Structure formats: C-alpha cells, structure tokens
Amino acid sequence: VSSRCKEGEMSEKIEWRVRERDYDKELSILSKSVSLTPTYDHPLGPSSKKSKSGEVVKEEKKKVEAPTFDDPLSLAAAEAASSGVLDPLSDASFDPLRSATAEVEKTEKVVSPAKEEKKEKSRPTSKRLVPWSQRRTAILQKYRSSGNVAFASMLSADDARAIADSDSAESKLEARLAQLQDKDAPESEVDLQKLSESEYVEHMEKLNRNMEAAWNKEERVKALKMTIALSKLLSETSAPQFYPSMYVLITDILSNFGRLVFARIRGKGMTSKEAELKDDHDVVPDDVTVDAKETCRNWFFKIASIRELVPRIYMELSILECYRFLTKGEYPHILKRISLMIRGIGDPLVATYLRAYFAFKLQYVAPECYDALEGCVNDIFGAVPLLSSELMTSRVGSAKEWFHILTPGLSYTFQVVAELTYMKGGEKEVKDTLKGVLATYRKKAGKNSAMLNSIISAFDEESISHFASAVAVLIKECSEHAGLKTDLYVSLGESVRDCPPSEDVRLPLLNEVWRVVTRLPKDQIHGYLKVAAVWVDFVIRFFSPREVRVLLKDIVKHCRDMPQDDIATEVLAICNCIVANATSFSALMENDSFAQLLDIAGGSSDAAIATGEGRVLARTSLAKELIELFVNEHANGQLESDLVVIHAAFDLARTLHDSITTLTFEDERRQITNLISKFVRSVDFGNDFEQHLNFLVDCRQAFVNLDGVKDALILAVCSLVMRTSKIVSGRHTRRTSAFV
Fold first, then answer.
1. Is 36 helix (H, G, I), strand (E, B) or coil?
2. Residue 186 preceded by cis peptide, ω within 30
3. Is the distance from CB of 319 to CB of 265 less than 8 angstroms?
C-alpha cells in the first residue's frame, strides 16, 4: 500500500484477512537454520560471562574507588567494598521486606500449590476439622508457662567458632572433619539451660533461622546437630503445661529440616526432564540419579545412628518423604515399624504427642497408608489406665489439668483418622470408623471423659449426630474425675444442633441428656448454663413452644438461688440464643421465664462496671437486637398498646440510650436514634390520650441526649393534639381544652 494513500481510502480499498500459519513447520525450518541452545539466565538479570570451559561465571563487582572530595556516603561505600562488608540495604538478610519475599518464594518451591489445593478439597467440611496451621496458633496462645523452660545449646564454642571463622573451602572441610571425628558429637554437646516462655519462643525462632543459614552455607553437619539436639528436648517434660507449645515450635523446625533435605536430594539430579516437572508426591525411585539415592541413604544412616529413641523417631519422621527416592510401595511397612517403635516410649505425654506427629506426617506423605494409624489408636486406648493413673495426674496437680494438656495431641490424632477415612470412602466410611472407635473406647477406655471428649471433637457433626443416642449413654457413664462431662454435653449439643438426627430420636435424646444435666450440683452452675445455652438453641429450632417453656423454667429454677452477678454472663448467652431464633417480640415478652432471665442477664450496674466493658457491650447488643425485633414486628403500620410489652421495650430503649458516651461513634448514635424514634412512633393507646401523653413525657425525660428522638416526640405530641381536635370536631370542652 502506498504511503501516500489517505487513511480513508485505505479503509475502503483494503480487505484485511487473518494470516494462516503452520507453527510446527516454521519451528522445523528455524531449528535447521539456527542453532538453538537453552538459556538459564534472564536477559535483564545480573550480567554474566562464559569461562574458557564454557561454564557461566558471574562478573565480579568492580571495586568502588574513593572520590577525590570528602563525600561521607561514598567513603563509607568504598570502605565497605574494600573490607568485604555488605551494604545492609542491599543485603536481603537485613531487609525485612526482601527477606520475607525470599521466604515465601522458598516455601512455594518446596510445597506445590496444586497439591495443597487438592488436600483442602479432600478435607470434609466441618467446624471441628481445622487444619494444623490453625491448631498450632491456638495451641501457642492457650498453653503457656509462668516458670522457666529448659533448652539446649546446639554446638560447643570451639565448633561454632571453627565454622564461623572458616572462609576457604579447605578450612571448612577441615572443620567439618574435626566435628565428624569427635566421638561425642553430635549427641553429648547438649548443654541444658533455662529460659522464660517468651525467651524460649524467641530462641526457637532464632535457632530455626540459624539452622537454615547453616544449611544455605552448606554446613550440613551443623544443621543436623542442631535439629537432633532440638528433637531431644521433646523428651524433657519438666514443664508439662508448656509441652504442647514446645512441641509445636520444635516440630516446625523438624518439618522445615525435612523439606530442606528433600529439596537437596531432589536437586542432586533427576533422570529426565519429565521427572523434573513431577510433583513431589509423584516422584518414584526411577526418577532420581544414583548419586541422589546415595545421598538419601547417607541421611538415613546418620539418623539411624542416634542412640536415644525419641530423637531418632522424630528425625526419621521429619525426612519420611525422602523414602520416595529409595523405594516404591514400602511405606506401609515403614510406618508399621515406626508405630511399633513408639510403643517403647514410657512417658505417656511424650508418646501421645509423638503419635500426633506420626499422624501428621502420615497424612501429608502417605495418606493411602491409613491402616498404619489403627495400631496407634489401639495403643492410645491401651495406655488409658496409665494416662488416668494418680502418678501421672499428680504431675500437674489435677486430673482435669493433666487431660487438658493431652487433649491437643489426642484430638489431632483422631482428626487425622477421620479425615483419612473420609478420603478413603466418604461419609459412610467415616460413620463405620466412628462406630468402631466408640466400641473400642467402651471396651478399653471405660469411663474416661477426656478420651471421649477428644473423639467427639475430632469427628464431624454429622457423624456424631448419627450416633447421638449412643454417645449420650457413653457420656452418662463417664466419671467426673476430669470434670469434662458438661463439655461433652456441649459438644454433643453442637452436633445435633447443626446436624439434627431423625425426628423419632430427638425427644428421647433430649430427655436422656436433660435427666443428667438437671441433676448437676450447684457448684457446677456455670457448666450447667453452658450446656443449657447450646441445648436451648436445639430445642427452639426443632421442638414446639411447650418444650421451650419447660426448659426455660428449669433454667430459671437453677438460677434462682445463685448470685446474679456470678452467672450474668452465661445467662446473657442464653438470652442471645433465644432472641436470635425469636420471630415475635410480644410473644417473647409474654414468656415469664424469659423476662426473669433478662433481669438476671442485666445484673447490677456496679457489677457490670466491675467486670469491664465486655459485659456492658453484650447487654447493649442484646437490647439493640430486641428493639430491632420490636420495630420489625410493627414495620407494617401496626401499633402497640399492650402495657407489658411497651414497658419492656421502654426499659430496653433506655438501656440503649444510657450506653451512649462521648466516645460513641456517630454512626452508632444515629442507629440508636433511629431505633428509639421508630419505637416511639409504634406506640398507641387508642383514645386514652392522657396515658399516651404521660408515655411521651416519660420518653422526653429518659432520652434527653438524642436530638432526633426529641424531634420524634415533638411530632408525636402535635399528632396527639390534632387527633384530639378531630374527635371534638374543633369544639373543645373545659376538660379537652385543659388537655390541649
């Protein structure tokens, strides 16, 4: 097309067509004419050059020369470059943003996103089946220690100095050989010291970073010694209250070490390009080179030489995934052997959490080997007499506190059983497994409430609800030595509330549960109210108002002789549950039991102030929900004239008004103003104008801080005057004129 053609002429004369291309043919022609070589460096990345041998060598940075004038910044840069000191702004270890990015990239390389997404999809949906990441956070927040905790220093001073000061490859090699020749290394160099809880957590995070730094510097022996010494700490139970948190911190480091070992072995060489693209879970022995297999065997030989049983098992579990490089189809035998080794641990606290780590690694490395967990479950039930013995419970002072420490390990092990069963055969398989677990519990664990609580908290609500009647009988037979019977009824109530059983089971189940709950002694009033808060919700949803009234009367009966301020928080939770399921404000206020519970939930003002802002906010939130219920009920123009209902709503509106302070947000103030104004407009006493006027006067006195409510009251008074004039047809008598 000639460049002299105008744009308009081009659009009229030229017909544009898509060019047809044969990409395979073009690629074959290009490969014959041009020699294509793969590149591993980005063209915009750091500059590099090739050596004589053909290897790519990065160009060395030019030495910064000091300027002729006295520039302090340039002088500092020149001195740093000449002395070999890195610029802290250019070093990722000093830059928190760059180091965080590097950490994320490192994690993404180790763990495949598609693999994690697949695992999340295979997880059954339940509020109780939470992933380990959420569990570990809850454990660290819940299990704390007020005393000192033991920790181990990982290296002797001479070894640490030798590794840190060695710059050349020869000196590093000599230092590593010296460590290997030391007869007592790596196991006898552990020096136990004492730290507070916060110092302990900070020290563990520092050790994790040091282990990674040693690994990145190719100081494998140092990293191995640190990890072995840390795993030995899991045999130390001098601070049992802090043991769950210590377990979380140390197993994080062990898992990190296992990922580093796996990545190193895989990086030693794969046999083909297809093998390099495989996911970690799909690697088989034929995909790796002989050199990589030798490296893998070497790691297992090092771990097998550890004398103590506990660190040897933990270390082998940490690199469990590396068995993919050596053998195929041997995981069932390997896991069976490890589960039998755990039986040799005498301390039940250490054994319980080691089985939890065993379940954790089995779930993410070889979930198909579900049968290996059956032995662990049987061993847990077999250890119940020892777990319940006075010798064990005396370590922390009470049986309840002892089982509180064991619960995270027990519940997570049972949760893995439930999840793997679901992956194997779905909901039907989960129910069959739960049936077998409950039968084994009844046969071996007897009346241990802590063990039953771990089982209920591990399985999903639908499965527990399917066996609700059997679970209720087991709870009834439980002993009170651990004080967990009320917690068991709460867990059962949550299951049947979210996944209700069949209609023919509901009423017998309610009677079976409440026959036990209503007989709880007075010193367990708080446990009784926690159970009532859950089962009230269940009764409101699936029973008639008659059963609701009976249950509320029983709650009021138990609260009658109790100090209101001590039980106000639990009663407030029950009231919130009732209001959340209510559809009529009038029907709610006609229930005498609810009105009494509402008075108890309010408590005394002095006690509310003493308990802090939380109680006040909870009462205000309840009052707002009730006023909203009243307003929505009268949204269609229907007016309220019942004195009892109006008086109850007036007290709630006054509670809302009194909750306003100088710190209240403007949006909150506006919402309260709108609710109270709608309440004022929804009241009507018919032709009893005197009573209506008294109501408006009381409102004017009660709601003095809200200008919007004052405007609504003025309009209501004007409307009342107009209605009066309309009735007398504009001719007032002495009585009506005095009213106006």
1. coil
2. yes
3. no
- The kind and range of the H/E element at 149 are strand 149-153
Here the tokens at position 700 are 């004017």
Spatial separation of the C-alpha atoms in residues 199 and 586, rounded to whole Å: 58
Count other Cβ atoms within 10 Å, centred on residue 65. Answer: 10
Q: Torsion over CA of 121, 122, 124 and 129, rounded to 10 degrees? A: -90
SS3 for 380?
helix
Burial class (CB in 10 A: 0-12, 13-18, 19+), 227: buried
Q: Tokens 């919700």 map to which residue?
A: 537
Query: Degrees (nearest 5) of the Cα angle 339, 344, 350?
Result: 85
Asked if residues 279 and 115 have their Cβ atoms less than 8 Å apart, the reply is: yes
Give the whole-angstrom CA distance, residue 317 versus residue 354. Answer: 10
Q: How confident is the model at residue 45 (pLDDT cuts 50, 70, 90)?
A: low
Q: Are strands 191-195 and 149-153 parallel, antiparallel or unpaired?
A: antiparallel
**Res 11 pLDDT > 80:** no
Whole-number Å distance between alpha carbons of 284 and 271: 11
Tokens of 563: 């100090």
Instruction: Report the distance separating Cα 326 and Cα 293, nearest Å.
Output: 6
- Integer distance in angstroms from the first to the last C-alpha of the chain? 95
Q: How far apart are CA 231 and CA 209, in angstroms?
A: 16
- Partners of residue 683 on adjacent β-strands: 640
Could you please report the per-residue DSSP string of 39-98? --S-TTSS-EEE-TTS-EEEPPPPPPPPPSS--HHHHHHHHHHHHTPPPTTT-TTT-HHH
Using DSSP, state whether 493 is helix, strand or coil: helix
Q: How many CB atoms lie within 10 A of CB 300?
A: 15
CB of 267 within 8 A of CB of 295? Answer: no
The CA distance from 547 to 529, in Å, is 17
Hey, what are 442's tokens? Answer: 């009844």
CA distance 442 to 713: 67
Half-sphere CA count of 475, side-chain side, radius 13 A: 29
Task: Name which of 528, 407, 417 is nearest 463 in CA terms.
Answer: 417
- The C-alpha atoms of residue 378 and residue 386 are separated, in whole angstroms, by 14
Q: Is the pLDDT of residue 732 over 90?
A: no
CB atoms within 10 A of CB 78: 16
**Structure-token pair, residue 58:** 């990065």
Helix ranges, 366-442 (H): 372-382, 384-387, 390-393, 399-440
Tokens 């926690």 belong to residue: 530
**C-alpha gyration radius of the chain:** 37
CA atoms of 320 and 365, how far apart (whole Å): 7
Residue 412 in contact with residue 132, Cβ under 8 Å?
A: yes
What is the average pLDDT across 145-169? 48
Query: pLDDT of 597-648, one tens digit each?
Result: 888 887 554 444 444 455 567 788 888 899 999 888 887 777 888 888 899 8
123, amino acid identity: R
Q: At residue 179, does pLDDT exceed 60?
A: no
In this structure, the strands spanning 56-58 and 48-50 are antiparallel
CB neighbour list of residue 201: distance below 8 Å, 6 or more residues apart: 140, 245, 249
Report whether 720 contacts 696 (CB < 8 A): yes
